[in-house]
Design brief:
42% of the residues lie in helices and 19% in strands. The chain has 375 residues and is α/β, with parallel strands linked by helices. The chain is globular and about 60 Å long. 49% of the residues are buried. Pathway: tRNA modification; tRNA-queuosine biosynthesis. Its cofactor is Zn(2+). This is Queuine tRNA-ribosyltransferase. Its EC number is 2.4.2.29.
Length: 375
């Protein structure tokens, strides 16, 4: 259940109650594709850096180790030792990213495993069954994420198919949640709005899926090659047609600036691999911009990554030491950078929530953006 606590302009401060705990929104979900955050980060670490939601990937876990194996362990929460909310995406984006290997039909999609080449078929029912076996808190509907740019006719046909698939997802999830051996009988379902940069298709689709009264609504197919300005325009046009009294999730986004702008447009759920991927390459986020710790200027730098930061890296280690670890290809260097970046994102979301509650979001956003631009 979603409770809208406060609005500041279009920015929403909410509280989403689930069977695995309460999510304070806006929230950044920490991405653990194969049930682990890349960079040797444990679930204990995630609690220390105040992670609210972990996100895992339906397709990747289906391929390895297998969703049935995970069900044998009592579901993903027990398998990875995480007792807070988990969102699983549907595998739809992997269909998009594995374009060379796929064949899309009304029933679903046939494609080859990226690991061993074996043939896989996934449609709405299969995606729901896999996510039910995983027992995640929130399951995502199975959709097609069309490429950018796409011809108008292709986009419309794709969105129409995604809508038909959504009805099938809802029906199958209702059935699975009633089964006696289901891992999580309270599993929630989020639908996904598509339409690329065609605002009329986006709006029409938003209106249609809103009638289904789902647990939440996502915007998919953004941050796939369009400009930031185009993405913000689509959010401006589309978000008002999604239910305000439900969570709004912008999938796969993004940079701190993207998040700050999207919150201002009514979005309250986010996920992105940037903080972990950048951290593994020595790129760290601060309130004064992004730093590359491989730079020689940090060789003798006694300071933490960011003065005043309370993350595990900044509490104990210097820029010089972390740079040494990265240069020596020691896993600890990557781990510390990933922990810092996730802590930075999680802390930024706390600041965002506070600013909305105080009716000062616009001022906070401008201050944060200008600080990060002053490198």
């Amino acid at each position: 259940m979603y409770q809208l606590i406060k609005k500041d302009g279009k920015a929403k401060r909410g509280r989403f109650t689930t069977v695995h705990g309460t999510i304070e929104t806006p929230v950044f979900m920490n991405v653990g594709t194969v049930a682990a955050i890349k960079g040797a980060v444990s679930t204990d670490d995630l609690k220390e850096i105040r992670t609210q939601v972990e996100l895992s990937n339906t397709y990747h876990l289906h391929v390895r180790p297998g969703d049935r194996l995970i069900k044998e362990f009592g579901g993903l929460h027990k398998f990875m030792n995480w007792d807070r909310p988990i969102l699983t995406d549907s595998g739809g984006f992997q269909v998009f990213s594995l374009a060379k290997l796929r064949k899309i039909k009304e029933e679903g999609v046939s494609f080859s495993s990226h690991i061993d080449g074996r043939k896989i078929f996934m449609g709405p029912e299969e995606s729901m069954q896999i996510q039910s076996n995983l027992g995640s808190t929130i399951a995502m509907a199975f959709d097609e994420c069309p490429p950018h740019p796409a011809e108008r006719k292709y986009m419309q046909d794709s969105v129409d198919r995604t809508t038909r698939w959504l009805y099938r997802c809802k029906k199958e999830m209702d059935r699975l949640n009633r089964l006696p051996d289901t891992v999580n009988p309270h599993q929630m379902l989020f639908g996904i709005n598509q339409g690329g940069t065609y605002e009329d298709i986006r709006i029409s689709h938003a209106k249609e899926i809103s009638r289904l009264d789902l647990d939440g609504y996502a915007l998919g197919g953004l941050a796939v090659g369009e400009s930031h300005a185009e993405m913000y325009r689509i959010l401006d046009e589309t978000v008002p047609y999604l239910p305000e009294a439900k969570p709004t999730y912008l999938m796969g986004v993004g940079t701190p600036a993207n998040i700050l702008e999207a919150v201002d447009r009514g979005v309250d759920f986010f996920d992105c691999v940037y903080p972990t991927r950048n951290g593994r390459h020595g790129h760290v986020y601060t309130n004064h911009g992004k730093m590359n710790l491989f730079n020689k200027k940090y060789e003798l730098d006694h300071r933490p990554i960011e003065e005043g930061c309370q993350c595990p890296a900044c509490r104990s280690y210097s820029r010089a030491y972390i740079r040494h670890l990265l240069k020596a290809k020691e896993m600890l260097g990557m781990r510390l950078c990933v922990l810092h970046n996730l802590y930075f994102y999680n802390t930024m979301m706390e600041e965002i929530r506070d600013a909305i509650e105080q009716g000062q979001y616009r001022e906070y956003k401008e201050r944060k953006l200008s600080g990060m631009e002053n490198k």
